[in-house]
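seq as requested:
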Amino acid sequence: MTITLLGSYDGVELIRHELKRYGLMGFNPPTNQDYFEAILLTKGTLRVTWNTRTEYLQPGSLVHMAPVREPVCIIAMNDVEFLYITSTSIFESYKHWVDHFHQLATEIAEKDGDTASHCERIRKYSVLIGCELNLPARELLSLSCGALFHDIGKTRIPDEILRKPGRLTPEEFDIMKMHTIYGRDMMNSPEHPFLHVGSVVAEQHHERYDGSGYPYGLRGDQISLPAAIVAVVDSYDAMTSHRPYQHPKSKREAIDEIRALRGKLYDPRVVDAFLKVVDIFEKD
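C-alpha cells:
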C-alpha cells in the first residue's frame, strides 16, 4: 500500500491510496466517535465487504460511511487507486503504522532466514481463499492480519533452534512450538495496537483438523476458519520453498499432498477453496 496526503483542512483529510493486486485495507468501528469516511475509486476493481454483504466497485464508484458501525474490508482485485476522505486527522499516525507493519513483517521473515515475500505470499493466498469462502468482513480482516504476522512469535525463539539446518530434537521442538503462544501474546500486546484482530490465527495456525496439531490439539470446528486457511497456505508454501532441511516439491506434488490430507490435517472447506484458486498462486 502507498498512501499520499493530498489535502487537509479543518480536520478533514483527502488521502490517495494505491493498492497492488490482492492488497487489503480495513476499517473497524471507532470507539465512541462519529467519523465520516468515503472512498472514491479512480482505477481498478475493489471488492468491498460490509459484515456479510459484498460488492464489486468500478472506477467512478463512491462509497461513504457516516459513521462506520461495522467492520469494512476492501480488497484490490487488480492494481487500484482510490481517494479516501475522512473527517478526522489520521494521516500521520496512519502512515506511521503502515510503515511499522511493513517493517515488522520484513523482520519476522528475516528472523526465520526467509524473505519478506514469504509473509506477503501467505497473506495474499489466504485472502484469495477467504474470498472464495465468502468470509464476512471481520474474519477477512482477522485472516489478512493473522496471515501476514502468523510467525511473529518466532522472533522470541533462539536462533540456534530457529535456524538449525537439521531435524530438531524433541526438546527443541517443544521450544519451537511456543512461537504460537508468543505470537498470540505479542499481537494482543499494547506494543502492537491493531494486530489483536489476527492473534487467534497466530495462535492456531499449526492446529490440525484431526487434532494432531499444536499448541492445544484442537480439532474440526474448534479451529478458527481463518487459522485453518493459513494452515493450508503455510503448508503449501513450505512444501514449494527451499528450506535447509528439505528440497522443494513441485507445485503439482504439493497440491496433490494437500488434496490427500483433506479431512485429515486440513479442513475440507479450506482445501476445496484452495483447489479452486491455487492456479492463481502459480500465475502470480
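The mean pLDDT is 89.
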